[in-house]
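2024-03-11 09:14:02 DEBUG pipeline.ingest accepted 1 chain
2024-03-11 09:14:02 DEBUG pipeline.ingest length=247
2024-03-11 09:14:03 DEBUG pipeline.predict start
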Amino acid sequence: MTIDPYLAEFIGTFFLLLLGAGVVANVNLKNTIAEGQTPWVLITSAWGFAVFVGVFISGQFSGAHLNPAVTIGLAVADKFSWALVPGYLLAQVLGAMMGSWICYITYIDHYRATQDEAAIRSTFCTGPAIRNLKNNFFSEFIGTFVLVFGVLFIAVPNIEIEGVMVENFGLGALEAFPVALLVWVIGMGLGGTTGYAINPARDFGPRLVYQLLPRKNKDADWPYAWIPILGPIAGGAFAGLIYTFFI
């Protein structure tokens, strides 16, 4: 079986957001089974497992980047073709949007029962615990640096994409578990400041879906939205540079 790599990125990111956003909805929305459970342990664990599922499904077809910061970091480190970057980024954003939308449909009754708009927004996108844009940017930068730097040691040359005469590195089924552990420990250790987006597609796509919802009092907080976009991109690119020059 062969799946187009762009479609594989869409599918992998779809599962990442469906399951990741789903756990936040499960603990933050009203009248769910998990309402009132220990949210941070549950959330960080589920996001790690969601990464595992997304990587396991799409790895053999696209290298399972599932994250623009990973794609850009690998390209900066000369382990992925720049020609493929725009298509990967678009597929990741669209997959994230679809995953968050299906999560919304799944929990639709609980969204209707929830009046706290901040809780609803948290099921789509991230926000800072303390709003300090300079420090928020650094938190996303350093979290994503750790992610991409770790991925660069885990990724292998496992995909050949027709028309691109380079060796493209990515993640396969065997790499799914260590990357899941990496995301898990980033959340546990560094995620308390901004909710650790560490993935522009994961934040921007669902934030856009939230903006389109038919809710009267919605506030997508677009003035903050550039932090989980540019912070991870900068962190991923810097990880690629450090890897290239020192490793």
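2024-03-11 09:14:41 DEBUG pipeline.report The chain has a mean pLDDT of 93.
2024-03-11 09:14:41 DEBUG pipeline.predict end
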